[in-house]
Amino acid sequence: PVLVAVLSCAPLVAGEREASNHVLHYMQLGIAIMLLGSIAFQLSLFYLVNHPDKDMKRYSWETISSTISIFVAVLIFKGVDGVVDYYVMEESAIWFKVLMDFVHLLAWICILQLALWISAGAH
Predict the structure, then answer these.
(1) What tens digit of pLDDT does each residue of 36-84 get?
(2) Residue 3 pLDDT more than 70?
(3) For 122, phi and psi rounded to 5 degrees?
(4) HEC profile of the chain
(5) pTM of this structure
């Protein structure tokens, strides 16, 4: 009886294996395309920052700098927001969550104003 049960399930297992191989193939293809795309992107960045024209170099570096700044700002915000959510607003009332969201907003606005004040040389 065990042999009959195993043999009757063999086509089902083979079909699942083919389906998983099919999904695995597309996943591997996607990873390969992303790898080649990222290498092509890096090569184009190297080309642009080593361009003979000085304006192209300057604009390339400014664009890269702005992009990195945006990614770092989003990373810092999401990190701080996650810490505030975890430690302050985990199991709080809705009014407290709204209040803390406004406090969080005001804190970021104050940090922005302080950074602008320092960078503008107004101190």
Answers:
(1) 999 999 999 999 999 999 999 999 999 999 999 999 999 999 999 999 8
(2) no
(3) -85, 0
(4) CHHHHHHHHHHHHHHHHHHHHHHHHHHHHHHHHHHHHHHHHHHHHHHHHCCCCHHHHHHHHHHHHHHHHHHHHHHHHHHHHHHHHHHCCCCCCHHHHHHHHHHHHHHHHHHHHHHHHHHCCCC
(5) 0.62
